[in-house]
Amino acid sequence: MTELVLPNDTNTLHNLMGGRMMHWMDIVSAIAAQKHSNRIVVTASVDNVSFAESIKLGNVVTLEAKVTRAFNSSMEVHIVVYAEDIPSGKKAMSNQAFFTFVAVDQLGNPIDVPEAIPETEEEIRLYNDALRRRQLRLVLAGRMKPREATELRSLFDIKEDEKN
Ligand SMILES: CC(C)(COP(=O)(O)OP(=O)(O)OC[C@H]1O[C@@H](n2cnc3c(N)ncnc32)[C@H](O)[C@@H]1OP(=O)(O)O)[C@@H](O)C(=O)NCCC(=O)NCCS
Questions:
Q1: Is 140 near ligand 1, meaning CB less than 6 Å away?
Q2: Which keywords describe this protein according to UniProt (predicted)?
């Protein structure tokens, strides 16, 4: 998805507002999740979005979104954002994030989605790491007990005899 940063997208310093960027990230990743699942999707969570460099008025912003892994009803989407200053020919990655979407039926209830099969080396790496990221976000959201987070056990230093 490509956007041009217009005056109404910026703050008083003429830089792109963070909220506008997150809106675009939400849209592009929702489209990726909808295309993968052929379903209506809702945003379930947004992993830390940070803004290292400001994006200027007049820059062209390119957002790329890809489903990294599908679980049951949820899908993790990786978004990479580039900012380009056309007159100077400078284009740089500005940020990236992982959003999670849940496919829902007509009543808004979660519904299973097809598996996502990684092909390239990078897709395989993102796919493999997605389980650890899922467990981390579910633990942080209070939806999974740290002791159930098998991929994170070493991080939380949970010993076998504390499992119960
Ligand atoms: C997301 C939502 C559908 C989950 O519904 P629920 O009744 O809690 O459903 P479940 O507990 O069965 O979870 C369904 C899936 O959501 C995932 N999920 C729920 N909360 C999550 C969170 N905070 N982060 C990541 N995934 C989450 C679960 O892991 C599960 O994934 P899986 O099916 O792949 O295993 C529901 O909470 C919802 O509709 N939220 C509002 C969404 C919305 O309006 N978004 C826009 C915000 S402005």
A1: no
A2: Hydrolase
Q: Ligand 1: which atom is nearest the Cα of residue 112? A: 33
Same domain, 41 and 95: yes
Measured in degrees and rounded to the nearest 5, phi and psi for residue 38 equal 55, 35
Has residue 164 been placed in a domain? no
- Per residue in 142-155, pLDDT (tens digit) is 999 988 998 887 66
Residue 162 falls within a domain, yes or no?
A: no
pLDDT tens-digit profile of 100-127?
999 999 999 999 999 999 999 999 999 9
Give the span between the Cα atoms of 40 and 130, in whole angstroms. Answer: 22
37 lines ligand 1 (CB under 6 A): no
**Residue 51 — pLDDT band, cuts 50, 70, 90?**
confident
Q: Is 124 in the pocket of ligand 1 (CB under 6 A)?
A: no
Q: By CB neighbour count within 10 A (0-12 exposed, 13-18 middle, 19+ buried), where does 94 fall?
A: buried
Tell how far the Cα of 146 is from the centroid of ligand 1, in angstroms: 18
User: Which domain CATH number covers 9?
Assistant: 3.10.129.10
Domains in the chain: how many in total? 2
* 62 ligand 1 Cβ < 6 A: no
